[in-house]
């Protein structure tokens, strides 16, 4: 029988050579709706040899033309947005409206990578001897191995495809096998737009086996990963052993500092939206709410009221505001964090329970009285739980906010300019959202500090991770 989601190698969709498949489950219903083909070591060898050929052909396409092709792929995604949104919602769970935003954002990234491809340029440095000059030439680094997760399966892969293909590299992507359809859709749009068929491969398989083989393959020149810190460390260590550069976009545990001078109700409204988007499964998601004691009661009351009122359901239902968690592991993890906090003395103000027996639904949850040793204050929750931590002493609060090894995103809410500057300067995070939510727009680079990552994605630097500088000294 043919799998619903096949490997894409050398422009051709096909089964894995050993015939292995795994089921793909709709997180809203628990039903298996398809299966995904797994690559064997031989399939990966074929992907590697195709990508090597693809690199030769694709890097020879003038950057201006590569830019046109990437922008055409973006147009194709936008033109087919309604159908593709259903593909994303069925496999990942997010509401259709959020799936549409994800497709738009993916298209934005492809366009941006295409624009930056058109601006590739080197420079000439005068030498010291008469007539001597040094050319600084940007070159595509080579075949890229990309590993992408299930929470924004299209958009997080789009950043890597945009940078790699814009720079002239070929790319082999291993998306999460739990959300295979989104990256396949994007790859098809890229191929239809004219990317060389051998320059793109999408493979699924046993994560450890695939990453080990691709990282060690001599054909691969660059590793890029988005996902959890533990896996990121493993992949970076493996890449380091063979001296290959990495881009690592890893997890976060964002502090949100709400100062006493803001409107508590309006701020709660903004933050409920930011917290429960994609059921909290966002690396930038606000996750530790430090609220100044003078407004904590009013903020918390409105936050709880809005969280409790969210319509939780199948993302395919247009009325749904929060979908299911993407997999059963997240439900178990969130239930474990909430139970740990409760047994240590935390109060559950709303939620704190699974909803129904079908699908991975967990109620939007708000906690207070959370003691400092509760696991939720140390582990990335990646789910719909908000611990609210009133504070009076700014210095002690900042020490706690900065006290973890995470360094991705953070948030500050205040109208006091001096305090804003002081807090923004003090936060050891790669991203600070001020008086609002955060999303990654392609025009600005974004990445983590500390254990949250290495390198950035996006911005005018979007091609940098995929280029190598050649210094040509002409005498
Ligand atoms: P996980 O750590 O097992 O996997 C994280 C991602 O890495 C998944 O997409 C998975 O397919 C991939 N992966 C796992 N092992 C791999 C390997 N050896 N080689 C290549 N890729 C591999 O955890 P999970 O249960 O899938 O996700 C839970 C945690 O992951 C969350 O708590 C969150 O911290 C993190 N996460 C972060 C992001 C992000 O955008 N930063 C995205 C998804 C998940």
Automatic annotation (TrEMBL):
PROSITE patterns: ALDEHYDE_DEHYDR_CYS. Residues 18-472 form the Aldehyde dehydrogenase domain. It comes from the Bacteria. Keywords: Oxidoreductase. GO terms for molecular function: oxidoreductase activity, acting on the aldehyde or oxo group of donors, NAD or NADP as acceptor. InterPro entries: Ald_DH/histidinol_DH, Ald_DH_C, Ald_DH_CS_CYS, Ald_DH_N, Aldehyde_DH_dom, Aldehyde_DH_Superfamily. CDD domains: ALDH_F5_SSADH_GabD. Pfam families: Aldedh. Belongs to the aldehyde dehydrogenase family. PANTHER family: SUCCINATE-SEMIALDEHYDE DEHYDROGENASE, MITOCHONDRIAL. This is NAD-dependent succinate-semialdehyde dehydrogenase. It comes from Pleomorphomonas diazotrophica. The lineage of its organism: Bacteria, Pseudomonadati, Pseudomonadota, Alphaproteobacteria, Hyphomicrobiales.
């Amino acid at each position: 029988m043919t799998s619903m989601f096949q490997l894409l190698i050398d422009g051709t969709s096909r089964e894995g050579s050993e015939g292995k498949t795994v089921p793909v489950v709709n997180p809203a219903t628990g039903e298996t709706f398809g299966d995904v083909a797994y690559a064997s070591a031989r399939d990966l060898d074929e992907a590697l040899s195709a990508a090597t050929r693809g690199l030769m052909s694709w890097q020879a396409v003038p950057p201006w033309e590569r830019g046109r092709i990437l922008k055409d792929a973006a147009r194709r995604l936008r033109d087919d947005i309604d159908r593709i949104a259903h593909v994303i919602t069925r496999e990942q769970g997010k509401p259709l409206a959020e799936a549409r935003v994800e497709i738009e954002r993916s298209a934005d990234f492809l366009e941006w990578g295409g624009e930056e491809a058109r601006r590739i340029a080197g420079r000439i440095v005068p030498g010291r001897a008469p007539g001597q000059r040094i050319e600084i030439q940007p070159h595509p680094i080579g075949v890229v191995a990309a590993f992408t997760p299930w929470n924004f399966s299209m958009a997080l892969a789009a950043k890597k495809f945009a940078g790699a293909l814009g720079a002239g590299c070929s790319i082999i992507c291993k998306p999460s096998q739990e959300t295979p359809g989104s990256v396949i859709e994007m790859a098809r749009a890229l191929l239809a737009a004219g990317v060389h068929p051998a320059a793109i491969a999408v493979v699924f398989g046993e994560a450890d086996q695939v990453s080990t083989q691709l990282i060690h393959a001599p054909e691969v020149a660059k590793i890029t990963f988005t996902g959890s810190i533990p896996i990121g460390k493993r992949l970076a260590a493996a890449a380091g052993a063979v001296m290959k550069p990495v881009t690592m976009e890893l997890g976060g545990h964002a502090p949100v500092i709400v100062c006493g001078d803001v409107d508590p109700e309006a701020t709660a409204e903004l933050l409920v939206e930011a917290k429960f988007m994609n059921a909290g499964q966002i690396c930038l998601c606000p996750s530790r709410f430090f609220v100044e004691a003078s407004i904590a009661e009013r903020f918390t009351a409105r936050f709880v009221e809005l969280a409790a009122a969210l319509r939780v359901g199948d993302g395919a239902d247009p009325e749904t505001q929060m979908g299911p968690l993407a997999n059963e592991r997240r439900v178990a993890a969130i239930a474990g964090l909430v139970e740990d906090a409760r047994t240590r003395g935390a109060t559950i103000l709303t939620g704190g329970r699974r909803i129904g027996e079908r699908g991975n639904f967990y109620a939007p949850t708000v906690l207070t009285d959370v003691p400092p040793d509760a696991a939720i204050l140390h582990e990335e929750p990646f789910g719909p739980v908000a611990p609210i931590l009133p504070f009076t002493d700014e210095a002690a609060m900042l020490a706690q906010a900065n006290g973890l090894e995470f360094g991705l995103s953070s948030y500050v809410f205040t109208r006091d300019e001096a305090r804003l500057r002081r807090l923004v300067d003090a936060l050891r995070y790669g991203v600070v959202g001020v008086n609002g939510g955060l999303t990654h727009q392609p025009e600005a680079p974004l990445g983590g500090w500390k254990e949250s990552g290495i390198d950035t994605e996006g911005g005018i630097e979007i091609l940098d991770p995929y280029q190598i500088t050649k210094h040509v000294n002409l005498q």
